[in-house]
Amino acid sequence: DRCVITSLELAVPATCGALTLDRLPQVQIVELGGLELLLPLTHSEDHDVQRLSAHALANLSVNAENQILMADKGGIEMLVHLLGSTNEAVQRQASKAIANMAVNRSNKEKINECGGLDPLISLAGSKSDSVAVEAIAALANLAVNDLNEAEIARLGGLAPILDCAQSSNPDLSCQAARALRNLSCNQSNKEEILKLDGARILQKMTTSKHQRTAKQAARALVNLNVTDG
Q: pTM of whole model > 0.85?
């Protein structure tokens, strides 16, 4: 019965998602075979199953060892697939999971190789702030890699990030500032950011009442060799 199957599919990620809020269960769930249960559910046609699975994987991927295990078991490919969902909740959770996975150095390259940059750039321009925040957070983490830094700009990632940098949403503008800091080391990127009026945008951000945003913007300006005065 399809209803029974869907109920079971929902129960697994929902339970794992609740348990993974604590650090110890994050390890135990994986040791007990949790990834083998969760990862296939990302292919479900049910948006709720996809969302709950991605949410559980996002929580599990906070753990450094799990980031490696998830990548080894094909988790990156499955999460990149979910980025293409038409459901905003699924997009948000998948982006969040990839942001966590991208903390790992090897995973930064794998995410690029699996085609993760393009959909993340698209989601950075989402009308949903909550989706854009997670997508830009992922791009910021991925940009701490020379190849990714150049590729994100080549694929058109700078413009939507600069747009988000001007958002009144403090979480969104903060992640955009962090991304711009990480994307402003490459010489070609520096020139493109300046061409897109990035210096003015970043200088305005240095006056933000949100300290983290102001600091990230100031560091980006240093990378661009622009004073914030």
A: yes
